[in-house]
Please model this.
Amino acid sequence: MDRVSQMAIIGTGLLGASVGLGLKAAGFRGRIVGVGRRPESVQEAIARGAIDEAAPDVPQAVAQSQLALVAVPLSQFDAVFKQIAQGDHEDLVITDVGSTKQEVLEAARRRLAQPQRFVGSHPMAGSEQQGPGAARADLCRNKPCILTPEPDTHAWALERVEALWTMLGMRLIRMPAQEHDRQTAVISHLPHAVSVLLVQVAAERGGWQIASTGFADTTRLASSNPPMRADILWANREEVAASLEAFRRRLDRFCDLLSRGDQEALLAMLQQTKQRRDQWLKRQGRFLEVSACEAPQPQNKPENNATASEHLA
Model:
């Protein structure tokens, strides 16, 4: 990141603004320019200190930048890459925060003259809140960031993107785009879908008056940005459908167990599930303890695919 004198953030919403705030807090010395569809959002990002100035458009934002971060809804990626191509240059590295990767990579290859300078990223951080007003400098810290470089990705471009997320205190994991989309369908997109269904069941059968923290925690994702979620679920619809089918099979078994009155099997299922989740939380706790003492350094190497699958399963 020492070689980046200017960075462009395209999309100054929650994630884009949080990246800007995080870089400033981490001591990034370059300028950060922002561009977005809504001028008021860009101005709010400036007021929050997430970016230094507004750029008039995407081509001008990237023309003098050595790093560009695309933080727009998935449905806008094709148009944004087309605009980036108008200001592209040999020292520009492009990355993103998209929740799916195969569709993003296809758009990059379709629109960019040198897609080898694009590195797909997915910081596993976010909130049901929206806009730069909800941005936080520590939003990304201690969270996983998935990188999906292609075989022909330039090594120096990958290093620059790794430096970005490391500076923000993220834990880097590399995996192929297809594997990323499969795993995020399970641990990110399926929970979004289930939270929506839980709210719909409550609307159908009642319970709003007595709902409390358990219901609020379980359905938090249902308050996320609907157009953004629709983009994500649609872009990854095949993997989401496969995950929903696996969920349906588990749901059918659960219903069968209850209808048979098998209390012993019910207890065994609950105990096994608690054990697996507790083990996952314990692993996450170890990462938090290490990161709390010392932020990750640039020489940290990304985890391999097997370890990534274990953490995200």
